[in-house]
Every structure is written in C-alpha cells, then in structure tokens.
Amino acid sequence: MRIRVVLAVVAVLAVLLTAGCASAVDGRAFAGPQVSAGLDPEFVRDNDGSDDDRLAAAVLRDLEGWWGEQFPRLADGQRFVPPKGYFSVDSSRPGPPPPCTESTDEVEGNAFYCPRADVIAYDRAALIPVLREEFGDSAVVVVLAHEFGHAIQQRLADVVPTSASLGSGAPTILSEGQADCYAGSFLRAVRDGETPDLRTGEAGVDAAMSALITFRDPVGTDATDDRAHGNAFDRVSSFQSGFADGVGSCARMTLQNRSFTQQAFSTLSDAQSGGNLPLPDLLRAMGTDLDRFFGGFVRAQGGQWTTPTIRQGRDACGQGAVGLCAGGVIQSDDALDGIHDGLGDYASGTLLASRYALAALAALDRPTTGAAAGRAALCLAGAYTADVGAPGSDFSLSPGDLDEAVNLLRRSDDAATATDGAVADTTAYARIADFRQGVDGGADRCLALR
Questions:
Q1: Long-range contacts of 240-245 (CB under 8 A, 24+ apart)
Q2: For residue 45, what is the enclosing H or E element?
C-alpha cells in the first residue's frame, strides 16, 4: 500500500493454470484417490499409462463431452469438433517434442494449447504430479480446462462474428481471463455432478482457486504485457464469473465489461519495497483513511460515527488476529505481525478494514453478531478497497495489494468473523465472492447481504 504524498512518500512464472480432478475427485486440497484403473489414456499421445496420465485423460475426455453440449449454444448451433490431438510430455528426459516446440524442455512445468496445430500438451513429469501434490487432483482439472478454453476461443473465432468472440486483436490478459472463466464454468459442472468421470466438492473448488492464486503473474507485471495472465484478484474474478454465471458470461467478456486490476510499479522505491509499509505505519496512517471512508458511509446512511481507537495487544476479543472489542476499540493480537510479514501489508489492511466495517454496522444499529454480520463486514472491506485512491483518500493501492487480500481470504476466515466469533463464509470461494461484491458493487450492496 502506498501513502500519498500528503502524508509521506513510501516507497513464479505465470503458468497457464486450471484445476483438475481424478476419476473420483475427493475434494481435498492435496492428492486425492487414484484414477480408475479402467480408464485407458491411449488417445493421449506418448502417454506412459501412469496415474497422472490417466487423470489427464479423464479430464480431457470429460471436457470433450461437456463442450460438445455447451459449444453449440455459443456458436449458433455449430457442432463442436475436439482438438486434433493431446500430448503427454516427459520433460525430464530427451524425447520427441510435441507440435509447436523444438524440444521437450520447452514444456517443462507447463501446459499449452497451440492453435497452429490445434493440440494440447502437458508435462507429466514436472506439472501434473506437482499440481496434485501441492493442491490436489482438482488442481489438474483447472490447468487443462484453461487450455481447453483457448481451443474454444479458436473455434468461436472461426464460426461466429467478432462481436460474439474475442477476435484476433484481443489483449493477452483478456484472452487468459476468458480461459479462466471457461475453466470456472467447467469446475461448476464437475462440482454439480454433470461430468461422467470427475467429481469434486467445495474443498476441491477452493483447491482449484488456490492454484490460480499461486500461479498469478509476478507482482508489478503490466496488464498490457503480451504474456500477462492477471493478478490473483483478476484470475479468481474470472474463474468465479464462469463458475457462477456459466459459459455465456465468459463468451461475452470484453474490455468494456471486464476491468483488470493488475498494474505495474510506478516508482523504483515502490518496486524495491514491494509496496509494503511497516505495520505501525500502516495502522497509524490507514486508520485516518478508514475513518474518512466509514465515517462518510455512516453519515450518508443517517447514522452518527465515532472514530474507533486502534490498539496493539494480546487479545483480539475472539475474532482472530484483529477484533472490534467493547467501547469501540479495535485491537490486534500477535498473530497480526505474522500475517503482515508473511502475506503483506494489505492482508493486515483488509483485516483492519473489516473491523472498521463492524464499527460502521454498530453505528447504524445493525447487528455485529451472527454470520450475516461477518459477511457484511467482509463485503464492506471490499467496498473500502475499491474506494482507496479516490479523491480525499490518503492511500493508493500498490500492485500487490489485492493479491495480498485474496491470499488472506484464501487462508483465513478472520475478516468474515462477527464480534461473537460467528462465521458464515467457511470456504475461500465464498469469502472472496463476498469481498468482490463490495469491490464491484459498493457499500450499499453489502447492507443487503443475509
């Protein structure tokens, strides 16, 4: 986070991801059960018959069947034609390279769709097993579903007017966002039991999102970069749009209806610090800006606002790392230092904003206890985030701040916790979705959450 000059001047390679499941995805965030031994991956070229290849084959087979139903709805009834080939690559040893490459080294740790040859290739040595180990089987379903999304883009460009497809001049970040969106739609079908080979639960959806979050663009990547895929907030937003609204919403994505928050560092000092303020400076300066936003919000709603007191202590009143305690005191415990140092300053800032949001609810005589209050507080933290940098604000967001917020919400429910400790948003998907409601819809929408 950057303090504006009125106060002071402070100064993983992007992997094309999708998340996959085994023939029976168990929904855990780690490796799930083995793929059914009855699945023959023979249609995947150069496969070695391993469990990893059987998993990839199950994903690709279900993608073909699902898109066979979805594609005609986007393409004026045109029949879906599957890609011309799938290639399993062992990047750990020399061998025949897949189309569009000159050696297997080019595929190391990656998956890709090549429009020139109309093929999808993946690394079975340094991608599939790593995804399964780190995130679970549902993290393989999102890499391959994302790549399949690029194949869909190619087909739509061939059969429908450019108004209904991205067209050849679309920026990379838009085409990658649309592929994330298509992947989200497919994960919804898997979760809802609409695919014959794949199954997952809510934890599997969270694991898929965790993969997208982890493999975001490096902080400070310009959105216009021809390799840009999006920051964590952009990638998850696209994924959730597809998951919630289906492939039609993905096909309609344009730069006019989809905003991307990814930005480059504007100064050398900001890049060197990662845009992070020390925790004491953040608490002192951000309190002033939070008072501006929430005080204005409460007064606009007809309430009376009293500025909370911020204290660092050892007790957060049973609300996680930061709590709204009696007497309008916002108090943190020692865990906040670890969050700040481990995730970044706006992870701390998001927690602080959610506690100011509870103070605003109290000022409006609205409940601060119960799960709905926790949801409203998280949403209002998102509304504040969207307002940072507005006229009168003492801050502007640094390039990594939204990613820090998303990483916090992926790992912790503290920002969605009410004053009595109640939490409604038990999944990372739900927490991020509520935060996004505030970012996209503003504070008034948050008061309607139940």
A1: 240/184, 240/429, 240/432, 240/433, 240/436, 241/181, 241/184, 242/180, 242/181, 242/182, 242/183, 242/184, 242/185, 242/186, 242/188, 243/184, 243/185, 243/187, 243/188, 243/205, 243/429, 244/184, 244/188, 244/433
A2: strand 44-45
**Contact (CB, 8 A) for 421 and 413:** no
Name residue, tokens 């505030």: 438
Cα–Cα distance, 20 to 130 (Å, whole number): 12
Q: List the structure tokens of 78.
A: 């045109």
Output the DSSP codes for 325-339. EGGGEEEE-THHHHH
Q: How far is CA 358 from CA 57, 225, 404, 426, 428, in A?
A: 48, 39, 21, 19, 20
DSSP per residue, 242-291: HHHH-HHHHHT--TTT--------SSHHHHHHTTPPPHHHHHHHHHHHHH
Among 425, 432, 29, 96, which residue's Cα sits nearest to residue 239?
432
Strands 44-45 and 2-3: unpaired
Residues in Cβ contact with 161 at an 8 Å cutoff, skipping those fewer than 6 apart? none
Partners of residue 325 on adjacent β-strands: 329
What's the confidence (pLDDT) of residue 217? 62
Alpha-helix residue ranges (DSSP H) falling in 318-426:
335-343, 345-363, 371-387, 401-411
> What are residue 157's DSSP bridge partners?
none
Model pLDDT for residues 326-344, shown as the tens digit of each residue: 989 999 888 999 999 999 9
Q: What is the pTM of this model?
A: 0.88
- The tokens for 371 are 């799960």
E strand or H helix at 3: strand 2-3
- For 94-128, what is each residue's pLDDT tens digit? 889 999 999 999 999 999 999 999 999 999 999 99
CB contact at 8 A, 30 and 210: no
DSSP 19: B
Q: Are strands 2-3 and 395-396 parallel, antiparallel or unpaired?
A: antiparallel
The H or E element spanning position 202 is helix 202-214
List the structure tokens of 273: 């610090």
Q: In Å, how far are 86, 109, 236, 336 from 130, measured between CA atoms?
A: 20, 9, 21, 31
Cβ-in-10-Å burial (0-12, 13-18, 19+) of 233 comes to: buried
